[in-house]
Design goal:
The complex is a heterodimer of chains A (293) and B (290). Chain A has 293 residues and is α/β, with parallel strands linked by helices. Chain A contains ten helices and nine strands. In chain A, strands 5-6-7-3-8-9 form a six-stranded mixed β-sheet, with helices on both faces. A three-stranded antiparallel β-sheet of chain A has the order 2-1-4, with helices on one face. In chain A, helix 5 packs across helix 6 and helix 8 packs across helix 9. The chains are: A alpha/beta (293), B mainly alpha (290).
């Protein structure tokens, strides 16, 4: 098996377990049971995960993290602290050098920082790519593509090429593509980082709507504290290299969350806590001399 | 603020974006006639200069630059001229096409092979470059010894000249696949063949088509040079060029040169058209600039 440290799991859908029953293999993208009975089970679990490169630099050290279905965990930290690396390890793209990783790999959604749409394919063909790679039959693929496109509100743009879409719409298409695999574990690597503020706010709300409908286990990497707090049930703060988890801030607001939650004083307090943790990372003990200068 | 206030009336979290505007589809682009004006004007200027030059030549050197009109009438339209030059044009076109097609087939195969086996690329690339630097005229006599004074030998020369841009441009395109896209394919266990077919190859098309275009021009040059060297068999443009030069038939020599340019333009034009057609919907290079 390719991934180094995947624990044995009882879920038939997990790639690393013993041979799957053929029925499951034939329909890897079956529609989700609404409010899945499996709610609350961990779909991603890191224990003591570290990553060291050949040159001796440590990207990650001692990361413990569990994400259950119905949980959306945001990871914040400065650039280069290993947030994206964490997602790459979770997805199996990158093997961890130590520690144990368990992850849902069959129904895995992964949205990258760029939309990574194939420019020569139309929106519909791009959204259908993953089904194509997984050998989903044409008719089923068509249905999945259409429902994913409708879900992200791209109806009417099926035959457009990416170059004719705005940045926000490309991200929607990227999201739709990930949705076609019916993700139970959904990784977001700063998906809206390159978008303007207005589009970003809107996509935050829409993604939250999708999360509330699908109740996947989500990991959302971002630079923005507001985005992190608004989206997630828990915010994880990572330190600089080697990246480790220095704080976990629970976000005590129930889903569905209204857009104006962002202006709630309680929201501001949570955001302030996260910001303070981040600030402490940059300058752990603000020296008086530094302040004076 | 108004925007945020508006959001309160939007309970549905999944709001559709603006529907496709009626005018958003590009209108079917018609070929703008105005584009022809500039080249035509330049053509007139060049012909006028040519005419002026030929008139300014006096005495014994006048034959060097025959006037455009006399080239057209005596060098191209006269029966004894076109009955020689047109068949030569056809033969050269055939030679260049054959050589180019072989170069394309070989170039694609070599490019894909070197992409598949990275060590092979590292090992052989310096020699590919070295091969390119060998002057073909120096090798032509060897070709003649090896393959005789045949169509095949001439085609080998064309292939040698036209080959190089194809694997290099192809490889450049294959290697410039976006890392994120490659990750996405790997994430879903796509095989090498799938990644090549659905990702690397289409990604390389813009580069490849540029390579084709460069090679097409080179193939015409190669065909004419090959014919000039071999001086054997049914005469093509290259052989006629040398013959008219030796016979001081400058009207026909110019006629030959004009047809050579037309052949080169036709090759180049074909691949430009092909490139536009293939890349129109998705690549910046194929977008018409106003």
């Amino acid at each position: 098996m390719s991934a180094p440290a995947i624990l044995t799991r009882t879920r038939p859908a997990t790639r690393e377990t013993a041979p799957e029953p053929p029925a499951t293999a034939a329909t890897p993208t079956a529609p989700p049971p609404v409010a899945s009975a499996a709610e609350g089970e961990p779909l991603l679990s890191f224990s003591g995960v570290g990553l060291a490169y050949a040159d001796g630099t440590h990207a990650l050290a001692g990361v413990d993290l569990q994400v259950r279905s119905g949980e959306l965990v945001s990871i914040v930290g400065s650039s280069g602290c290993g947030k994206s690396t964490l997602l790459r390890i979770a997805s199996g793209l990158l093997p961890a050098s130590c520690g144990a990783v368990q992850a849902e790999r069959e129904h895995l959604g992964y949205v990258f920082q760029d939309a990574t749409l194939l420019p020569w394919r139309t929106v519909a063909a791009n959204v259908g790519l993953l089904c194509e790679l997984r050998g989903v039959p044409r008719e089923r693929r068509r249905q999945l593509v259409q429902s994913a496109i409708d879900m992200v509100g791209l109806g009417g743009f099926e035959h457009h090429h990416p170059r004719r879409l705005s940045g926000g719409m490309r991200m929607r298409a990227s999201l739709a593509r990930a949705l076609t695999v019916d993700p139970r574990l959904f990784l977001f690597d700063e998906p809206f980082g390159a978008l303007d503020e207005i589009t970003r706010l809107r996509l935050n709300e829409e993604l939250l709507g999708i999360f509330e409908a699908r109740r996947f286990a989500g990991v959302f990497v971002t630079h923005s504290v507001t985005e992190a707090v608004f989206m997630s049930s828990k915010v994880v703060v990572m330190s600089d290299r080697p990246g480790r988890i220095v704080a976990e801030v629970p976000v005590p607001f129930a889903y569905p969350r209204p857009p104006d939650l962002r202006f709630d004083p309680a929201f501001a307090r949570v955001a302030a806590t996260v910001s303070a943790t981040l600030r402490d990372l940059v300058s752990p003990s603000p020296a008086p001399a530094a302040l004076a200068s | 603020m108004t925007l945020l206030e508006e959001r309160h009336d939007q309970p549905a979290p999944v709001a559709p974006p603006q529907p496709p505007a009626a005018g958003s589809a590009c209108p079917p682009a018609r070929f703008p006639v105005r584009r022809l004006v500039a080249p035509l004007l330049l053509f007139v200027v060049v012909v006028a200069c040519w005419e002026g030059l030929s008139r300014s030549m006096h005495g014994s050197r006048a034959y060097l630059v025959p006037s455009p009109w006399s080239v057209l009438t005596k060098g191209l339209l006269a029966h004894d001229a076109y009955s020689q030059i047109l068949p030569a044009f056809g033969r050269t076109a055939e030679l260049a096409t054959t050589g180019l097609l072989v170069a394309i087939a070989l170039g694609l195969a070599v490019g894909a092979l070197l992409y598949r086996f990275h060590w092979l690329e590292r090992a052989s690339f310096p020699y590919l470059v070295a091969l390119q630097a060998i002057p073909v005229l120096a090798v032509a006599p060897m070709m003649a010894v090896a393959f005789g004074y045949s169509f095949f030998a001439k085609a080998v020369i064309v292939v040698m000249i036209a080959f190089f841009p194809i694997p290099t441009s192809f490889l450049l395109g294959l290697h410039s696949v976006d890392q994120g896209m490659d990750d996405m394919f790997r994430l879903h266990q796509a095989s090498w063949a799938t990644r090549f077919r659905k990702l690397a190859f289409p990604n390389a098309l813009p580069n490849l088509l540029t390579g084709f275009r460069i090679s097409a021009g080179l193939a015409v040059v190669g065909a004419i040079v090959g014919e000039e060297f071999f001086q054997y068999g049914q005469p093509g443009l290259g052989m006629r060029l040398l013959q008219y030069l030796n016979q001081v038939e400058y009207h026909r020599l110019y006629g030959c040169l004009i047809l050579s340019s037309i052949l080169g333009m036709a090759f180049y034009g074909f691949f430009t058209w092909l490139s536009q057609r293939v890349l129109r919907s998705w690549h910046e290079s194929a977008q018409r600039r106003p």
